[in-house]
Specification:
By secondary structure, the protein is an all-alpha fold. The chain has 2 domains: about 50 residues, Homeodomain-like (Arc Repressor Mutant, subunit A, Orthogonal Bundle), CATH 1.10.10.60; about 130 residues, Orthogonal Bundle (Tetracycline Repressor, domain 2). It has 10 helices and no strands.
Length: about 210
């Protein structure tokens, strides 16, 4: 008598209905609301509707999932830097960053504030690596803005005495501050007003 075939092994990995991008967005919102360290793997898998093995298979680990969520939030670091470089002027690049921050910090379907600023982490080996990765992203965007400002200075579109690094740093200080205000309950109109006030002090074309 021919033996009955063995039942198929039960799958413990990713379910067939797994939507990677949707799961990534869910993880991004969770990190955004609670921060990196306060968000556990159990929190993530429960919200994403997947098992821990599925998470590790799809994203590697919690740290890599978080960094991918950050890049998803930004739309890609290279794209941000390219949009700054391609802006009509440094003034436009700075204004666009401030307006994008005001809008992003006050989305109706997203947590308040900025994911990069909301995910500050404390001291540990893993946290240090995450914090440095976030700092590197912020430095990259700030450097791109500083380079765009320096280009306008060299082309005579901004006064020769303008300090590109200081101006870029000021924009980022305002961006970070707006995130804190949004988390404290500030609305979009207030943040847009702050963005306008910040740009009112921009050096005038000579």
């Amino acid at each position: 008598m021919k033996p009955s075939p063995a039942p198929p092994a039960r799958r413990t990995g990713r379910p067939l209905s797994f939507d990677r991008d949707a799961a990534l967005v869910t993880a991004m919102h969770l990190f955004w609301r609670h921060g990196y360290e306060a968000t556990s793997v159990a929190d993530l898998t429960r919200a994403m509707g997947i098992t821990p093995p599925s998470l590790y298979a799809a994203f590697g680990d919690k740290r890599r999932l978080f960094l991918e969520a950050v890049h998803r939030y930004l739309g890609g670091l290279e794209a941000v830097e390219r949009s700054i470089a391609d802006a009509v002027s440094a003034h436009d690049a700075a204004r666009d960053l401030l307006v994008a921050a005001a809008l992003g910090d006050t989305g109706t379907d997203t947590p308040p504030g900025c994911l990069l600023a909301s995910s500050l982490v404390t001291s540990s080996a893993e946290a240090d690596a995450v914090r440095e990765a976030l700092a590197g992203i912020r430095r990259g965007i700030e450097a791109a803005l500083s380079a765009r400002i320096a280009r306008d200075i060299s082309e005579g579109l901004l006064p020769s005495g303008s300090d590109a690094e200081m101006l870029a740093g000021h924009v980022f200080a305002v961006v970070q501050g707006m995130s804190t205000l949004a988390k404290d309950g500030a609305g979009r109109a207030k943040l847009m007003g702050i963005a306008e006030a910040a740009m009112a002090g921009w050096p005038k074309t000579p």
